[in-house]
Amino acid sequence: MTIIDAWAQPASLQGFQHVPEILRLFAQSGASHLLETGLTPAETVALMDRAGIQTVLLSAWRRPGAWVFSNDDVAAIVREFPGRFNGVAAVNLERPLEAVHELERAVKELGFKALRVLPWLWNRPPNDKLYYPLYVKCIELDIPFCTQVGHTGPLMPSETGRPIPYIDEVALTFPELRIVGGHIGYPWTDEMISLAWKHANVYIDTSAYLPRYYPPSLLHFLRTYGRDKVLFATNFPQLSFETCTQQALALDLPPDVRARFMHDNAQRVFKLDS
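Above: the chain sequence. Below: its structure as C-alpha cells.
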C-alpha cells in the first residue's frame, strides 16, 4: 500500500550539531550512529523505498538564535526528489512579523504544506501570544499547524507539551485551524484523544513511538471512532522507517482503517496530491 509519513526531518550531520538536546534521545532509540555519520537525501530515499514509504512530510527546524534545518534546505531536498518529500515550514517564533512573512514565502514560493513549531525549543506553550499571528496565517493559507504534544524526549521541560489546557484553548479560539499533535501526547495520550474527539480539526500523529508501544487507548481510538483522526508518522531519523512501517502493518487493523491511518488521513489533512 502507499504510505505517507507525517513527521520526519533531514538526517543532516550539520543540522544535528545544532540540537545537542537530542543526544540522549537518539541513544535510547538506538540511532546514535546517525549523529556521527548523518544521511544524504539519496540515502534517505533508499531507506524510504525499503520501508515502502512513498511520501514524507519533511520538516525544517528553527530554534532561538539559529536555524537547524532551514526552509530553503528542505526545499532543495523536495526539488531533488519530487513526489517523495513535501516541505513543512519552520519560523522564528520570537519575531512575529518576520515569522508570518517567512511562512507565507514557504507556502506560496516553496510549495510547503504545513507549519511546525516545537514548543519545548522555545519554552512557550501553543497558547502563547507569539503563536497567534501564525494561526491566522495558517488559516488564510489553508495549511495545518503541527506541533509536539506529550512529554519532551530531549532533556527539556515537558510542560509545553500538555494537550490540556494548551491545545484545547487554541482549538477553541481558532476552530478553523487544522492542528496535528505529534508524538501521541504521552503520558497525556487520553487527553489528546479527547481533544481529537472534541474538536473537528484536531488530529494525532504517531511520530516518535514504535507501533508495538502505542498505548491501548490510542489503538482503540484508531480502530473505532478515531479512524479519521490518527496519522502514521515516524520522527525519522530518531526511529527507522522500516521498523515503524513493519510494526504498523503488523497491527490488527481492518484494511480500511489501515489505509486511513497510513495514507488517507495525511493526504486529506495536508491536502497532498494523489
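DSSP finds 13 helices and ten strands in the chain.
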